[in-house]
Task: structure prediction
Amino acid sequence: MMKNNSSGPSLDRHQGYNYADENSDGLGCCGWLLTIFSWCVVCLTFPLSLCVCMKVVQEYERAVIFRLGRLLSGGAKGPGIFFVLPCIESYTKVDLRTVSFDVPPQEVLTKDSVTVSVDAVVYYRVSNATVSVANVENAHHSTRLLAQTTLRNVLGTKNLAEILSEREAISNSMQTALDSATDQWGIKVERVEIKDVRLPVQLQRAMAAEAEAAREARAKVIAAEGENKAAHALKEASEVMNESSSALQLRYLQTLNTISAEKNSTIIFPLPIEFLSHFCKEK
Result:
């Protein structure tokens, strides 16, 4: 005869519980008597007993049944109709739909010693109804508490710049850490999102001043580059005009046309270059 030293069902992470000792011999004499008595009550009160014994769970629900404190073999029941013996069996409904909750704002000290307030939202669902009932007292409450501590632990290893610019990577890290921890509770964490990062007012002002200074520096660099290009263009234009006197005359006429288009009381007529060069030769 094989001796079993375990006091209850053992846990397999991927296959659930092992129900090897949940056979008819495990009930004992008292368990058998109570089971027979329960069946007698059901038969004597039939069909009224159906109102008490027959239960229904929805498509998105599962029922975890306990008989005399032991989990029934076969795992959770549902969806549909299942049968519960009065007095000796009890059941717990488990919702398998995805649930979301907000992680309250957490005051976090970053790696570069900046205090920020960060909140997040977590999406999860029950992947194993039996484990979520038998292995943890309140799987939903435990997942919420673990999400808060995980958020602080993950953000504590990041700099402020990384928190502001790498939200997706931080969300993936939190999801991996939460999912590995809640797997033994029958919980599957599907998604984690960082909602908001609140900075101290003094830090916001300092960052705004830094950003403004950076923008002014870029504007001065762009203006200097523009002046440099304009100077090169003027130099090339002067070289072209120097090669042809007619080009310079055309430029004079264009300038005169521009001045006359405006409503000026004084108009300056440029003298031809040949006329000026004639006086220069006489001297």
